[in-house]
UniProtKB/TrEMBL annotation:
A single Gene Ontology CC term: early endosome membrane
Every MARVEL domain range: 30-157
The protein's name: CKLF-like MARVEL transmembrane domain containing 6
Keywords tagged on the record: Membrane, Transmembrane, Transmembrane helix
Pfam families referenced in this protein's UniProt entry, alphabetically: MARVEL
Subcellular localization: Membrane
Species: Peromyscus maniculatus bairdii (Prairie deer mouse)
Transmembrane parts of this sequence: 74-92, 104-126, 132-154
Lineage summary: Eukaryota, Metazoa, Chordata, Craniata, Vertebrata
Membrane topology according to the record: Multi-pass membrane protein
Lineage: superkingdom: Eukaryota
Biological process according to GO: endocytic recycling; protein transport; regulation of protein stability
């Protein structure tokens, strides 16, 4: 009998076998499907808002533009950083609870500040097409951050509901003496 016939059906390929190079180090499995979509949209929309804002050539009230520029660039870089941490082996080297907690607060903060920057930019823009596009992408990106925060909040509540002990109506009867 050949060794292949004996060991073939029970031998499994190593995890990641068949994938080489960078693909072996990159996985989206740590994020649920809705989170993957939201994180991708956050990344894309914040980048588009930043690019559209960079195309603006002149402004009259530049404070709103500069604040929007800073926030959109920061939002892009923070969402890229979080996606890198979730999708690479770096996630295994840090505490998963701390990553999720950081993601929770970064997403909330970024969504709120991006919304504020978009509102300020709306009140200070001059009405050019790149400004309008940047504002639209800014509002859409801030909504994606806030939706992601809402999803994480919902998942946290579901998780705490599962950990909560059941209310047992017979608990009072169990503390009574048996000889009574």
């Amino acid at each position: 009998m050949e060794n292949r016939a004996v060991y073939g059906p029970t031998t499994e390929a190593a995890p990641g076998a068949g994938r080489g190079g960078l693909a072996a180090c990159f996985t989206l499995g740590r994020l649920s499907r809705p989170q993957r979509v939201l994180k991708g949209l956050q990344l894309l929309l914040s980048l588009l808002a930043f690019i559209c804002e960079e195309v603006v050539f002149e402004c009259t009230l530049c404070g709103g533009l500069y604040f929007f520029e800073f926030v959109s660039c920061s939002a892009f870089l923070l969402s890229l950083l979080l996606l890198i941490v979730y999708c690479t082996p770096l996630y295994d080297r840090v505490d998963a609870g701390k990553v999720k907690s950081s993601d929770f607060y970064i997403t909330l903060g970024t969504g709120c500040v991006f919304l504020l920057a978009s509102i300020i930019f709306v009140s200070t823009h001059t009405g050019t097409s790149p400004e309008i596009a940047a504002i639209v992408f800014g509002f859409m990106a801030s909504l994606m951050f806030l939706f992601d925060f809402g999803l994480m909040l919902y998942e946290k509540r579901q998780e705490s509901q599962l950990r909560k002990p059941e209310n047992n109506p017979r608990a009072g009867t169990l503390t009574e003496p048996l000889n009574g």
